[in-house]
Amino acid sequence: MDMRTRLPLPASAPHFEPASADDFESLLQIRLAAMRSSLEQIGRFDPLRVRRRLADSWIPAMTQHIVCEGARVGFYMLRRTDHALVLQHLYLMPAAQGRGLGSAVMRMLIMESARTGLPLRVTALRDSPANDFYLKHDFVRCSSDEFDLHYVRAPERPAATHPFAG
Questions:
Q1: Which of 74, 70, 51, 102 lies closest to 3, judged by CA?
Q2: Structure pTM?
Q3: How far, in Å, CA of 42 to CA of 24, rounded?
Q4: Which residues pair with 92 in a beta bridge?
Q5: Domains of the chain by residue range
Q6: How do the pLDDT tens digits run along the chain, 166 residues long?
Q7: According to CATH, what is the number of the domain 15-156?
Q8: Helix (H) or strand (E) holding 39
C-alpha cells in the first residue's frame, strides 16, 4: 500500500493482535514511515539509527499490532514497571493518522492506567506532532533532553471511588 494514500475512515474500532519476533521488519517499516517527516525536519533521519533504536528497545511480548478493517496500520508497545506503565512505541502509518485510531489506543491505555493505578509515561521527539497528541490526552511534560520531551499522565480514579461521586 502506498503510505501517502489516505485510508477511509474506519467503520469499526481497531482491534489488536500480539506481535512476534518475526514481525520486526514490518514494524520497523511502520516506525520509519511514521517518524520520517519529524526526523527529517530536525536533520536526524537515519534509517540505520531508527533500526538500532527499535531493536534496542523492542520486546515482542509487550507489543500489539493495531489492526483496522483487516489491515495492520500500526503498533504499540506498553511496558509495565513497578512504578508506571511506559508507552515505549506508538506508531501509525501516515495514511492511518488523523482518523481517531491513535486516540482509540490511548483511551484503552488510559483505562489500563486507571485499572492498575499506575501513571502512564511516554517520550516524544521534540517538534513532532505527537507532542500535541499527548497534550490533548492530558499528559503533562515532566522533563526534556536534547531531542525528546518526556510526559506523564496520572491514573484516573474510577468514578465510584472519587470523593465527590454521588
A1: 74
A2: 0.83
A3: 26
A4: 74
A5: 15-156
A6: 333 344 444 446 899 999 999 999 999 999 999 989 888 887 778 889 899 999 999 999 999 999 998 999 999 999 999 999 999 999 999 999 988 999 999 999 999 999 999 999 999 988 888 999 999 999 999 999 988 999 999 998 765 555 555 4
A7: 3.40.630.30
A8: helix 24-41
